[in-house]
Structure formats: structure tokens, C-alpha cells
Design brief:
With 199 residues, the protein is α+β, with helices and mostly antiparallel strands. The protein folds into two domains: 37 residues, no CATH class; 158 residues, no CATH class. It contains five helices and eight strands. Helix 3 crosses helix 4. It is globular. The chain starts with a helix and ends with a helix. The relative contact order is 0.11. The N terminus is likely disordered.
Length: 199
């Protein structure tokens, strides 16, 4: 291994190429050793039909630990008869996790719109999260499969109940729709607390 290593190092230009090699080596470690050894924890997700409120069996949940500086870690699961799927998530990276839902009957024929997006038709809308057992307990991701009106109705319910305080909240994209009087900063998938609840 010494000769190939020397050839690679000699062929690299100073500074920029060394940095690229370091980034590549770090990503290889991130996708192999770190991914295999990072502690995991099981989290249950439940998917409900937006119109009937009934569990949606056979729905596919695609979860992503979204790393800005390295490749993402993807996890997948399929809901059972009760609409529940269990995913093994990286315990140290909950704050980087997001999930998408694809129904079993394939009637969802579009990309996942951002929270609050002005999109017509049926889609999987990511509304927000709740933590009924406190910040260190289970995190419930609320996803509505239906039209934009159904998503707005659910976002309004969550906002009135939690107002983005400790028990949960909605994404910025929905805040701009259901509570335009509150100043919101950041991307559609971000979360902004309500100043009235943090005083």
C-alpha cells in the first residue's frame, strides 16, 4: 500500500487537493465505520388516511438523516395493518432526521411539497412534530396524505394546541399560512418558537 499512497500524494496539488482527499476520506469513514457503530434506537411511526382517519397499511416510510457535510443515512419501513412502522434511527442525529411517506396504492404521483407550498391535488404534507412525553421522549412526525386544505386544517389544529412550545409545533411553511401575524424566519422545514410562549 505504500507505493500507491506515495503516487497519490505526489500527484496532488498542495492545499485544495489535499482538502478534497480529506473530505473524501472523512465521508468514507462516515458511511462505513461511523454508520455501523452509531447507537440506534427504535422509533414508531403511524400513518393515517387524511380523509377517513383510518390507519394506512402498506405505506412506505423513507427516513433520512440529512447531513449537510456528508452523504445521508437512509432508513426505510412499511406500515403494518395498524398503520405503524418501526425505524431504527441514529440516536445522536435525531435533529437531522426527516421522513417521507408513500402510500401503498401509488396514488401519490408527485414530489413531496414543502410545508405550506401552494400545490394542488393529493400529496404527503409534512406538518410538524409533537413530543407528548417531553423533549427526551418519543417524537411524533405528523404527515397528512390529502389535499392542501386537509394539511392546513391539521396545521391549524397543531398550532392552536401547541403554538410551537415544548409539546410540539408546526414547520415554518405552515406557520406563514395559519399564523401570518407571527414573525417567522428560516426555511419551510425549520421551526420557529412563538415569542408569546417563551416569555
Amino acid at each position: 500500500m505504500l507505493l500507491p499512497t506515495l503516487i497519490i500524494l505526489i500527484s496532488l496539488r498542495p492545499e485544495a487537493d489535499y482538502r478534497m482527499l480529506a473530505i473524501y476520506a472523512n465521508n468514507v469513514h462516515h458511511m462505513t465505520i461511523e454508520r455501523a457503530t452509531t447507537p440506534r434506537i427504535n422509533k414508531r411511526f403511524r400513518v393515517l388516511d387524511a380523509e377517513s382517519g383510518e390507519p394506512l397499511p402498506g405505506a412506505r416510510i423513507i427516513g433520512v438523516h440529512d447531513f449537510d457535510w456528508a452523504d445521508d443515512w437512509v432508513v426505510r419501513g412499511t406500515t403494518d395493518a395498524q398503520g405503524v412502522a418501526t425505524l431504527r434511527l441514529a440516536k445522536n442525529y435525531f435533529h437531522l432526521f426527516r421522513a417521507h411517506v408513500k402510500p401503498a396504492d401509488e396514488y401519490l404521483g408527485r414530489d413531496w411539497p414543502e410545508p405550506g407550498a401552494d400545490v394542488t391535488g393529493i400529496a404527503a404534507w409534512h406538518i410538524g412534530t409533537t413530543t407528548p412525553n417531553g423533549p427526551w421522549g418519543a417524537v411524533y412526525h405528523h404527515v397528512v396524505i390529502g389535499d392542501r386544505a386537509a394539511a392546513i386544517a391539521r396545521a391549524t389544529e397543531l398550532w392552536r394546541e401547541h403554538r410551537n412550545a415544548r409539546g410540539g409545533g408546526i414547520y415554518n411553511g405552515w406557520r406563514r399560512v395559519v399564523a401570518p401575524e407571527v414573525n417567522v424566519s428560516g426555511p419551510a422545514y425549520g421551526g420557529t418558537s412563538d415569542p408569546a410562549t417563551t416569555k
